[in-house]
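Contributing new records

If you add data, match the layout below exactly. Sequence lines come first and carry their own label; structure lines follow with theirs. Keep one chain per record. Anything else will be rejected by the validation script.
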Amino acid sequence: AYGTHAAFLKVSRPTKYGNTTVPRGVFYVFQSSGGPGVIAAANWRVTLDALHADARYNAIVLGQTADACFIDGCNNLNKESHFDGIFTYDGFGYDGSTFAGVNQQVKQRNSIFSPSVAPGYVANRATSDTRIKPRFNSSQACTGYTYDCMWNAAIASGAEWVSITSFNEWHEGTQIEPAVSKTITGYTYSDYNDFEPAAAPDLYLTKTATHVQAFDPSTTPPGTPVPPPVPPTTPPSATDPILAGAGDIACGPGAGSASCKQMETSNLLLQIKPNVVVALGDNQYEQGAYQDFVSYYGASWGRLKAITRPAVGNHEYLTAGATGYYDYFNGVGSATGPAGDRNKGYYSYDLGAWHVVVLNSNCSKIGGCQAGSAQEQWLRGDLAAHPTACTVAYQHHPPFSSGQHGNDPQYQALWQALYDDHVELLLVGHDHIYERFAPQTATGAADAKGVREFIVGLGGRNKTSLGAAGRRANSEVFYNSDFGVLKLNLHPASYDWQFINLSGQIVDTGTSGCNGSGGTTPPPPPASGSVLTIKPSQDAYVDAALPGSNFGAATTLRVDGSPQLQFALSFPVSGIAGRQVISATLRLYTTNPSRNGGEIHRIVNPAAWSESTVTWNTRPAVDPAIVATVGSVASGSWKEVDVTSLVKADGVISFLLTSSSTDGAYYASKEAGASTAPELRVTVSK
């Protein structure tokens, strides 16, 4: 009866050893792994395998450890326990600095990581002295704010769940319950004022509510002010992504806090629901230290970290090599990642029909920005290799500005490269203002086919004033009254912009066509015809780590090079009826972003597999030729891939998606619901 009660937590989450979408009860096992006197891994394997195999008792079981090898062993049977995931439990003097790395390891095993957060405690409080001592211990890295620090680290890690370690044993100082001061003979029970002056009795409950809302923005704690709604706009089509962001964002130690609005600007982004967030540099003040990124940026803009592609600012380089910036966005010690190569800081990606270029404007850190420099040569080569009709670039420093920093000619060669390839937009920060310029050349001459610059430096740190030189040539809009973010709707041959402030007011808005890459005009639309929308009859992913397991009932389709994951799709094409196929497009709804969404192959015999039985060992044979490359994919958006070469007539057509990248992508399967199920759209002549 206990397990059927509505208050008992049940979660629908397939795991490596518990592959089912049926809701399962959740159990955390204390002191389950490692150390003397605990149950051996071999015994856990037997118990959990039996549990997972029996529908009556199947449950999600998390073991207490920070070692992901206690899930699958890492080739060590003394650790292989077959837990569905792990949790850390310990709240003593810990800053959560390993959470991100552990989460990545657990995620690779299709398992659950639930980092534990706690106010912290001192072990010698667990004595016969039971007097209440609510002030908690701190770790050095957290500078006294253990609970906040651990929460921020847990959120920034990207973990699916967070658990709170709190006891009713008040004398250990771990409680989050209310505390008030009381004096008795010979002793005064303290409250929370010894930690935060004028703290309310429910300080830790309030802190918990704030962090829960940051972890899951869909929750709104009682009494939390609701930010004003973003004014409605015409919703873009499924193929037109939204890019949004700002620069000069999060306050940290030494930055002051009275005017800091990084949480409010991040709330705007959560309402906008962009496909990609751009952080335009000076993302964490004052020195871009890693722990500051975790504690301050992580609690605000870090809620959108999974879809963020940042640019590096000068404040990031106040930490040698901008290591805090690269460690936060790429992973501690990782050479590359969402922020690009840490020795370069410039990179590019595709978003819908647009190509996006990210530049490093800290020229002295990367060998210069002049003509012939490594970055300028890379930029010209990258633009030549991506001949799209529309391109947007961004960096931290503005080549042109009416703000306090003024114009900066050292970026003229980079601007010239953008201009020569007919790039539409350059987004920047650095001056804490909003300013829009008319399209212009590298020397500042107005030109309808030039590059349009937006300065968006109102991400939260503070606001600055007009520079001594006043409004610069070609400046169309200047604003510094409130913080806000820029929203761009990127259409195949045009773009719309809006700058939205914290009051929800659209300060600036407009629409413009694209210049066309390489001097060419956008390609004409395809010949008109009838569109057939076909849903898959079968879809399933397979896992090399579980070569005999079937995942046909899963709500996701997964592709990855490490661990090896592939997925198959079958579409029963009908309605062509001898007509000419003008185009065929495979549409996939992304649920986990990636720089490499996979490669598409033709399955030789569509009848050779079934979603209810296919496994890694029995996956169907494919034509080795790659039909199409998916490219980068953004979470919460549709990805469209041209597969016209494979669709010629009515009949069943099957695809297999593979990947050689370690940056895996997940898509919604048909089991996730009709609104996000894969589609094959075939346009045929009338």
